[in-house]
Amino acid sequence: MRIVSGIQPSGRPHIGNYLGAMRQHVALQEAGEDCLYIVVDYHALTSLRNGEDLKRYREGVALDYLALGLDPNKAILFYQSDLPQHAELAWILGTVAPHALLERAHAWKDAVEKGNRDMNVGLFTYPVLMAADILMYNPDIVPVGADQKQNVEMTRDIAEKFNHYYGETFKLPEPQISKEVGTILGTDGRKMSKSYGNTIGIFEDEDVLKKQVMGIKTATIDLKDPMPIENDIILSLYEQFSSSQELDELKSNYAAGGFGYGSAKKALLKKLLESFAEAREKRTQFNTKNLGEIMAMGAEKAQKLANITMDLVYKNTGLY
Ligand code: AMP
Ligand code: TRP
Fold it and tell me: Is the minimum distance from the CB of 132 to ligand 2 under 6 angstroms?
């Protein structure tokens, strides 16, 4: 099976990215699937305004992937902007993508409803660039977090439109979303997102992670009283990293009273540090020295596949 996915280097990856996407990406590679993972720096330009930041985050995301187990000899890892054909295909797809379809995008609608005056055209056409990333490689499956379902559906709609006008060119990909993970909540109870500043990191220093975990919003109750287990952010995160027995133990501490949110947060922090111990250790050994070679190798492999698609697109549209 051909697998394609991407992650924006608009900040450092967080545990929401890991649980919703990166963990599956590494597992699919290990299952022997034919995987392409794209560090989508063109996409990040819609929200970043500083070249140094983009450069740092771009390398950071690539190194984080490698530390989490991505093997560049098994999966193709590359920077989107190393293949300008992604932007070219996005333009071409934009000429068939209905404006009304893009207006229905949740991300766009939310921003419009909030009266955000900083909206740029790139944010509006974001799903078209994502469609280009995906359709370029004709994947069977696109493993993403729940928040990206609509974008993958839009990719299918755009591919159908293109095929309708120009004949069978693109395969329609299926989103693959882990149901047990769903949407990971951030420290304030909203979706964990780089843009909300409510994330818990993976590779940050221990004191930074501690601060993030200690900042999780909790109910206000008396220490001696039982703590409610419904809608509890700490438990929802703990569940993702622990066995059902460990989860039950923490829940019974909640129910017993006299436990306190401080202790619950400490248990979560411990769990996180344990879960990522190996990756964190690995991450300290990497530097950016041979990263350039790894990414160039990925781009070269992706380029071969992209050429095949672009040739067909030129031929079918008459651009040849
Ligand atoms: P992004 O950081 O927006 O590029 O997201 C990269 C991947 O992580 C995508 O597949 C997202 O769906 C996934 N993701 C981001 N935030 C979350 C979250 N809070 N819960 C689950 N998956 C997420
Ligand atoms: N929009 C995705 C996100 O924010 C990132 C992305 C860009 C992507 N291109 C992609 C995901 C192609 C999967 C496939 O998470």
Answer: no
Which pLDDT does position 111 carry in this prediction? 87
pLDDT in tens, 114-152: 888 788 999 999 999 999 999 999 999 999 999 999 999
On the question of pLDDT at 287 being above 90, the answer is no
Residue 99 Cα to ligand 2 midpoint, Å, equals 20
CATH architecture designation of domain 2-184+287-317: 3-Layer(aba) Sandwich (3.40)
Phi/psi at 291 (5° precision): -65, -40
Q: Which helix (H) or strand (E) holds 126?
A: helix 126-135
pTM score above 0.85: yes
278 alpha carbon – ligand 2 mean position (Å):
27
8 A C-beta contact, residue 107 and residue 123: yes
* 289 pLDDT more than 80: no
Q: Give distance in angstroms: CA of 252 to centre of ligand 2.
A: 39
Atom index in ligand 1 nearest the CA of residue 43 equals 4
| Homologous superfamily assigned to 204-275 | Tyrosyl-Transfer RNA Synthetase (1.10.240.10)
The tens digit of pLDDT for each residue in 215-228 reads 999 999 999 999 99
Whether residue 142 has its Cβ less than 6 Å from ligand 2 = yes
Q: 33 CB contacts (<8 Å, ≥6 apart)?
A: 1, 2, 3
Closest CA to 103 of 142, 170, 28, 157: 157
Question: Is-contact 73 28, C-beta < 8 A?
Answer: no
User: What are the boundaries of each domain within the chain?
Assistant: 2-184+287-317, 204-275
pLDDT at 195: 85
